[in-house]
Each structure stands twice: as C-alpha cells, then as structure tokens.
Amino acid sequence: MWAYVPRTTVAAMGDSLLQQQLDEVRALLLRTRELFGAHPVAPPEIIPPDPETPN
Predict the structure, then answer these.
(1) What pTM was estimated for this model as a whole?
(2) How far apart are CA 35 and CA 53, in angstroms?
(3) Is the pLDDT at 29 greater than 90, yes or no?
(4) CA 42 from chain center: how many Å?
(5) 12-48 burial, b for 16+ CB within 10 Å, e for fewer?
(6) Cα–Cα distances in Å, from 17 out to 4, 6, 29?
(7) Radius of gyration in angstroms for the set of CA atoms belonging to the chain, rounded to a whole number
(8) Distance of CA 27 to the CA centre of its chain
(9) CA-CA distance, 8 to 16, in Å (whole number)?
C-alpha cells in the first residue's frame, strides 16, 4: 500500500538532505579551523614505533 509521491518531491527531499549534510560538514570544518587554525601542521612522515609496545 504505497502512496504515490511525485518524483519532484522525492528529488527535493534528497536535495534537502544533501544540503543539510553539506551544512553540517561546513560547520565541522569551521569548528576544526577554529581549533587548529587554517593551515595545520602536517603530521610527520615517519613515526618511529613505540619501543615499549609488544610486536
């Protein structure tokens, strides 16, 4: 018993969800920049293993 939903409504709902997710990502990026700055330092290329950690 499915109700007919016009295709434009489904597309609009999808667009709305994508826009909401995009807004969330932008907010997270803004918060990250507030915490770490616009150009955070790159991680070291080689991280030596911890000598106390068993293999």
Answers:
(1) 0.51
(2) 31
(3) yes
(4) 19
(5) eeeeeeeeeeeeeeeeeeeeeeeeeeeeeeeeeeeee
(6) 20, 17, 18
(7) 22
(8) 10
(9) 12
What's the CA gap between 13 and 20, in Å, rounded?
Answer: 11
Hey, what amino acid is at 47?
I
Six token digits for residue 32 = 């990250």
What tokens were used for 43?
A: 């991680």
Give the amino acid at 55: N
Three-class DSSP category at 9? helix
Q: What is the DSSP letter of 52?
A: T
- Token pair listed for 41: 């330092």
Query: With bands split at pLDDT 50, 70 and 90, how would you rate the model's confidence at 5?
Result: low
